[in-house]
Input
Amino acid sequence: MRIIGPMPHVLLIEDDASVRDGMELVLRRHGYGVETAATGEQALALLAGERGARVELAVLDLMLPGMDGFEVCRRIRARTATLPVIMLTARGDDRDIVTGLEAGADDYVVKPVTAPVLEARIRAALRRAEPYPRQGPAGEVPDAGRTDHAGLVIDRAGLTVTKHGVAVPLPPTELRVLLELSAAPGRVLTREQLLASVWDHTFLGDSRLVDAAVGRLRAKIEDVPARPRYVQTVRGFGYRFGPL
Output
């Protein structure tokens, strides 16, 4: 995982110059280093270059000229699992939000966004990218070693996951969801509990964040994601960890 330094660098991908400049000013006042891009193509080129090595989080507008934000997010995720991505959407349209989350975004905010809300979301996303605190959902400390769940091996100390001996790279958000659920197999965690423990959202949360992350996680660890064996839905409540 990326090590977050004293001045985290944020990449702002926004085509509206006035919005981009305003957000950059706010973030620099809060002590962040800032890189900017007006298009998805510029952003991907920057990430592939020397300056991209210091970027620790991306704030991505969905409505970009040329390559849209959905495709930019997919390409970022194809390149790296660990870079947190917060998407910006002007309309708050449910379909845009769900599509963006399914593309791999870790969080979203609806424009216009206030400076305190944006900065809080960035801080929360950067905390999720830090090494995972080794405690369970109720504060108990689980076994810090390797646990084998019917072929799905979770190494809580090394923060790695393998399935039948093959490494399963997981972005920080999905890894944290899995670690939270697997800390107490059989225990049901509500979406609100997962929002609080994984996203650090106590009042800004949205259950779609949880559902999208679970969907992405199932696509990577389940044999048949539509019939999950490890991460099971408990209708009306939330999720629990199997396996069955």
